[in-house]
Write a structure and sequence with these properties.
The protein has a single domain (about 1-110), classed as hypothetical protein PF0899 fold (2-Layer Sandwich). The longest helix has 17 residues, at about 1-20. It starts with a helix and ends with a strand. The chain has helices at about 1-20, 40-50, 80-85, and strands at about 25-30, 60-65, 65-70, 75-80, 95-100, 105-110. The radius of gyration is 18 Å and the shape is elongated. It has three helices and six strands, in the order αβαβββαββ. About 30% of the residues lie in helices and about 35% in strands. The chain has about 110 residues and is α+β, with helices and mostly antiparallel strands. It has a three-stranded mixed beta sheet, covered by helices on one side. It has a three-stranded antiparallel beta sheet with strand order 4-3-5.
């Protein structure tokens, strides 16, 4: 479960940056193509935060949609169904879609008290 390693790194990054500041809330952005299970991150985050300045902090996860751009006409669209949409044909007739977003995994916001 790589969500444990991700959660450990999130807690470490925040504590390294903020030191002894008491963290009350963390907002994490996760792209729909990042290969991360949000519920698993929530569970692991709570475990990793125990005994740190993040202990008891709320974790809000914002899921970012995947986006693709047609290599032929530059039209951009949201990828809703990975299999269907990545095999779709652009209205211009091209089948060449380039993934432009949805792979993000970043700490967006940290609230301290």
């Amino acid at each position: 479960m790589h969500e444990l390693a991700i959660s450990e790194r999130i807690v470490a990054a925040i504590t390294e940056r903020l030191g002894d500041a008491r963290v009350t809330r963390v907002v994490l952005e996760v792209g729909s193509l990042a290969g991360v299970v949000p519920d698993a991150v929530r569970f692991c985050f709570d475990v990793c935060a125990q005994g740190t300045t993040l202990d008891g902090a709320a974790l809000d996860i914002v899921t970012l949609p995947a986006r693709a751009r047609c290599s032929s006409c530059a039209a951009e669209s949201e990828i809703v169904d990975l299999v269907t949409d990545l095999l779709a044909v652009c209205p211009c007739g091209s089948i060449s879609l380039e993934v432009m977003g949805g792979q993000e995994l970043r700490i967006k916001e940290v609230e301290v008290r």
